[in-house]
Amino acid sequence: MKKLIKFLFLIPFTLLSQEFGNDDITIFDDSVLSIINKNAKIEILADSFIVAEGPLWDSDKGRLIFTDVRQNKIFTWDEKSGIKDYISPSGSTGYAPSFNEGGIGANGLAFDENGNIILCQHGDRRLALTLNLSSKNPKFITIVDNYKGKRFNSPNDLAISKNGDIYFTDPPYGFKNFSDRYREIDFNGVYKYSKDGNLSLISVDMSRPNGIALSLDEKYIYVNNSDPKNDPKISRFNTINFEEKIFFDGKELSKKYPGGFDGLKVHSSGNIFTTGPNGILVISPNGKLLAMINYGKKITNCNFDDKEEYLYVTGFEDISRIKLK
């Protein structure tokens, strides 16, 4: 495992002086105004969820697909029909020993090259594939479920490269109170599952690896560490040699605001939109905080529609969106 290299780019929050925008958005660097509307407002689309997650935009159907990890379901939302049940169960079918309580459903979602859905399944403790079709009796095909013969903890989020390689995280969030019962791997890993079926271990050093995304040139992966008390940060790994550098240190923000680093996505501009303290942070490829979308609470993940017209956001109890440029 490569030794951690010290800070890549660290822009202390206390040094950011320019702040303007409305109550929902705070702008720290006006370069971000090319992709964000400073007057946009947070729009709640639906509520009454428990842990909404995994937002995935389905451009063919013009809809958002997302999970509720606690309900073990996948839902859809669109402008015409609102919320609909879509796939159930989503992440716990009895395939692997797991807890009935806690986060058992699917978490992160992505499309493969054929339009099928690849899921990070907490309860079944695997990466799996299913058809992008509504079902109350879905069929799942296992992609990978173990490292050196030991079951994963609870795969959480994934990013797929242009050639089909899958990068994913494996924290213990599917275990009740992070219990050691059923646990077979004694670390929380970051992995690469290659198209040829080879599984590589990228890191064992992150305490709670969570959201993951590829840079536009696919030279790097960004990984959120959702550990607000001990090590809130975004790490950046080289996809060739897996060298790690700290991309953004969130300690000071975590002291000031609720919420942690959970899901993240990379915009076509190269800027990173990540959940974090106070809501959504927009961070430049150089690690500079450009803007903050002020939810004022913990949220889980985010994603864009195919035209990047909106940023869709999942929270613990609701889903929402905010207009971009």
Strands, helices and their partners?
Elements: E1 25-27, E2 43-46, E3 52-58, E4 63-68, E5 73-78, E6 82-87, E7 106-111, E8 117-121, E9 126-130, E10 141-144, E11 146-147, E12 150-151, E13 158-160, E14 166-170, E15 189-193, E16 199-203, E17 209-214, E18 220-225, E19 233-238, E20 244-249, H1 251-256, E21 264-266, E22 272-276, E23 279-283, E24 289-294, E25 299-304, E26 310-315, E27 319-323
Antiparallel strand pairs: 1-24, 2-27, 3-4, 4-5, 5-6, 7-8, 8-9, 9-10, 11-12, 13-14, 14-15, 15-16, 17-18, 18-19, 19-20, 21-22, 22-23, 23-24, 25-26, 26-27
The count of helical stretches stands at: 1
As a percent range, the share of helical residues equals under 10%
Q: Please compute the radius of gyration using only Cα atoms.
A: 18 Å
Strand order, main sheet: write it out: 1-24-23-22-21
Uncertain segments are: 1-21
Question: Could you please describe the fold and organization of this structure?
Answer:
The protein contains 1 helix and 27 strands. It has a single domain (18-323), classed as TolB, C-terminal domain (Neuraminidase). The strands form 7 sheets. Strands 1-24-23-22-21 form a 5-stranded antiparallel β-sheet, with no helix packed on it. It has a 4-stranded antiparallel β-sheet with strand order 2-27-26-25, with no helix packed on it. A 4-stranded antiparallel β-sheet has the order 3-4-5-6, with no helix packed on it. The chain has one helix spanning 251-256; strands at 25-27, 43-46, 52-58, 63-68, 73-78, 82-87, 106-111, 117-121, 126-130, 141-144, 146-147, 150-151, 158-160, 166-170, 189-193, 199-203, 209-214, 220-225, 233-238, 244-249, 264-266, 272-276, 279-283, 289-294, 299-304, 310-315, 319-323. The longest helix is centred in the last third of the chain and has 6 residues, at 251-256.
